[in-house]
């Protein structure tokens, strides 16, 4: 009876001693890691907010390339730091529990190989995300179109988040599209440096080309002088001339360089004013006026 009580007291003493040493350290480590990750998250949010506040444009579609890159890089660094903190804390806590870490090397190696085979797609996503961010292919606030190789159609939207694994974008209809980085084959950046609004005006074969060219040039000058549209344009719209010919008529192309992401607004306004001006002159359009936004680099 006395020996049993002695063993119990000894066990309680050992538990109390462990709780005062390793147990207390484990609690402090867990609490510290939670506080540290919250601080990292708070600091990352403050930094991204400061980047957005310092951006002169104030528009997500026309942020400077440096600001977009810093925004994406801050999000990735914050996420990586949080993962490292939790990983290091987990290893140290296991060591405080007396788990022999050296004995876990062989099982961890086998588990890592098995996980590598089973998570090839995840590794592919992370590597693709790393190159997307380091090469500045696109960033937060960019207007992009993701499609298959060689295709001109796909999913178009504004980038809301870029991590090492996924890209989240919002379409013009408000839908959120999440795409693993490893599944992205072709990206068209519609908001890099500058963009171009391209208007192809279809006309009947009987239309006077010189008269139409003068009319389109006047419309371009009128749009460029508009105080609400002038800040969106880098230069006055230019009439390029006859773009195509067919049996029933021809088309004249008009282009205008704009701020990145603003080619659609300028293109719609040009299309409206061109249609109105042609109608006043008695010229009937054989088809809808088409607006195309083409992104380019300076």
Number of strands: 9
CATH topology of the domain at 194-296: Alpha-Beta Plaits
Note the main sheet: 5 strands, antiparallel
Cα-based radius of gyration, to the nearest Å = 31 Å
Structural class: alpha+beta
* Approximate helicity band: 40-55%
Order of helices and strands: HHHHEEEEEEHEEHE
The strand order across the widest sheet is 4-3-2-1-5
Low-confidence stretches: 1-9, 288-298
Mean pLDDT equals 78
CATH class label of the domain at 194-296: Alpha Beta
Oligomerization status of the protein chains: single chain
Q: N-to-C terminal Cα separation, in Å?
A: 90 Å
Strand content: 15-25%
Q: CATH architecture of the domain at 194-296, please?
A: 2-Layer Sandwich
- What best-fitting shape do the alpha-carbon axes yield? elongated
Number of helices: 6
Give a quick precis of the structure.
With 298 residues, the protein is of the alpha+beta class. Among the domains are: 2-99; 194-296, Alpha-Beta Plaits, CATH 3.30.70.
Q: Which labels suit this protein?
A:
298 residues, alpha+beta, Alpha-Beta Plaits, five-stranded antiparallel sheet, four-stranded antiparallel sheet, 6 helices, 9 strands, disordered N terminus, disordered C terminus
Explain the layout of strands and helices.
Layout: H1 2-54, H2 65-96, H3 105-118, H4 120-134, E1 143-147, E2 155-162, E3 166-171, E4 176-180, E5 186-189, E6 194-204, H5 209-224, E7 238-245, E8 249-258, H6 263-280, E9 290-296
Antiparallel strand pairs: 1-2, 1-5, 2-3, 3-4, 6-8, 6-9, 7-8
Please give a structural write-up.
It is built from six helices and nine strands, in the order ααααββββββαββαβ. Among the domains are: 2-99; 194-296, Alpha-Beta Plaits (2-Layer Sandwich). With 298 residues, the chain is of the alpha+beta class. The strands form two sheets. Strands 4-3-2-1-5 form a five-stranded antiparallel beta sheet. It has a four-stranded antiparallel beta sheet with strand order 7-8-6-9, with helices on one face. The chain starts with a helix and ends with a strand.
